[in-house]
Design goal:
The chain is α+β, with helices and mostly antiparallel strands. The chain contains five helices and nine strands. The longest helix is centred in the C-terminal third of the chain and has 14 residues.
């Protein structure tokens, strides 16, 4: 089973992190704007089951993502499945309509500007995101994908990279959770 292993850190700005990532040899991607529409299940409280269902729109594409409950541990690890909805972004709206007709309700749209990076660190391929989240501020996300047999090694690698980047204390809540409690 594939797990997303990540930690998220609030930062005052991304300038220092960009310099640190350059020193480590990270490769920068093109900045993108994301709009994540979260949906509430009609018969199941995702807040209590610690699950999430979202439609993410990025430029001209849309992706449906299900996130399972978090596993215990210092880093956030959970089952994640993502499915591309189309190549032109339009079916993201169509899928949202289907879910609404099935009884799902929109919860909130999380809007952010994301600067992606990739980095090979301690034998792991990291996806790093420098996020500027509307109404929340700046964050750094460190993420790996791991299978059952490599989960603990991935968690250790995320913790080691966070320490190398001097990121401090991770924020355990999702952007959605933070915005809902704001």
């Amino acid at each position: 089973m594939a797990y997303e292993v990540e930690s998220k850190f609030p930062v005052d700005s991304h300038d220092t992190i960009k310099a640190e990532l350059a020193d480590l040899g990270a490769t920068a991607g093109v900045s993108i704007r994301q709009a994540d529409q979260y949906l509430r299940h009609p018969c199941r409280d995702f807040a209590s089951t610690d699950e999430a269902l979202r439609i993410r729109r990025v430029n001209d594409s849309a992706v449906l993502t299900y996130k399972g409950p978090r596993l215990a541990g210092a880093t956030k690890a959970r089952f994640e499945a993502e499915y591309s909805l189309d190549a032109d972004g339009r079916s993201g709206d169509g899928f949202a309509e289907i879910f609404t007709r099935l009884g799902f309700e929109p919860v909130l749209i999380v809007r952010k500007e994301r600067q992606p990076f990739t980095l090979e660190f301690e034998g792991h391929h990291f996806e790093i995101a420098l996020d500027r989240v509307e109404s929340l501020g700046c964050y750094v996300e460190l993420e790996l994908t791991a299978e059952d047999d490599s989960l603990e090694a991935a968690r250790s690698a995320v913790t080691a990279l966070a320490a190398r980047l001097h990121l401090g204390t991770p924020e355990p809540r999702s952007y959605l959770e933070m915005l809902l409690t704001k």
